[in-house]
Amino acid sequence: MVSKSTATAFRAASRPPSARARAGWLTAAAVVLVAFNLRLGISSAAALLDALRTGLGFGDGVAALLPTLPALCFAAAGAGTGALARRLGAERTVLLAVAALAAGLGIRAVPAIWALLAGTVLGMSGLALCNVLLPTLVRAHFPGRIALVTGAYTTALSLGAAFASAAAVPVAGALGSPSLGLAVWALPAAVAAVVWASVRPPRPPAVVGPACTLSPWAMARTRLGALVTAYFGLQALNAYAVTGWLPSLLSGQGMSEGAAGGVLAVAQAVGVPVSYAVLAAARDPRRLRATFAAVSLAMLAGFGGLLVAPVALPLVWAVLVGAGLCSFPLVLTVIAGSGGSAAETTALSTLSQSAGYLLAALGPLAVGLLHGATGGWGAPMAVLVGTAAAQLAVGMALTRR
């Protein structure tokens, strides 16, 4: 005979999940799906850069500009994200952003330089809005699970980047065109837009009204705002420089385009397990400083290896660089957990990502121009070793207290 308490527990377990729980799971799935798309267009373009250059016939200037455009778009479009989100709401703004991403990637199917650049600008502007708003949305929808959800969506981001790096060359080969190989990544972006359309704002809303807003530039006058922005900019500079140019560096040393894209995929895939370890360590304030030091030192060591002997141990350098790329989820967690309100989080996120990505744009541009001017990779990699050392110094200053 079943006891009364057991029967009650069984009935409770048998009940369908509440509407609130279902909405939470749907929102989490939508956040992860959007994050999966955040680097597909960037990584695929990096892996196909040499093929695009040959097929479309552009020179060093366009070759240097193409990996730079994402960071420039992130800086320009990110600065106006707060105002747009207050007008439309954070959830609708992200929907508009993912739709712009899908449209921009689709435009790149046209085999012309103007389409490549215009589609990149439109798509990366959509990514900029998502970059700024995802930390705020995580804080608003999942206030008790910030680190967990941040880890999930940065993992999805890393998986998407690794998948696009590895698959871009064979997919373009199967389609018979590097332009079509870029445009095919509009399909998962369209799926993400459809799923995101069902996300509804929490109560209270994710982005507060005009009376409760905070200027990002007010955050720039604080120690936290200045150091977070500097660290974000340096890690993004290093990340976009290596993501945009690593396949070209390796193929210039005799490695095939497919194998070079595979090495980039390894660097990005390493971030999946390492990011969880990094975020777990970062939950303990006593270990935060050591965690910042570890990821920055890994990036510094990986860049040093690529400077000295790029094709001697490419997978070792890829693993080190991949561990260094985990500085991104680390600083995102700091942003998402900072401030006493969603308005302060949005201000810090807007400041760090708009000003930070403006600094980051110098990385791939300088690498491209230096490579074009010198005809080699020694000078560009020496500069990146210096910026990795600067990232380490800023991280130590940020975590000193």
Automatic annotation (TrEMBL):
GO terms for molecular function: transmembrane transporter activity. SUPFAM superfamilies: MFS general substrate transporter. InterPro entries: MFS (IPR011701), MFS_Cyanate_Porter (IPR052524), MFS_trans_sf (IPR036259). Coiled coil: none annotated. Keywords: Membrane, Transmembrane, Transmembrane helix. It holds the Pfam family MFS_1. The chain crosses the membrane at residues 21-42, 62-85, 92-107, 113-134, 146-168, 180-199, 224-246, 258-279, 291-309, 315-335, 355-373, 379-398. This is CP family cyanate transporter-like MFS transporter. It comes from Streptomyces olivoverticillatus.
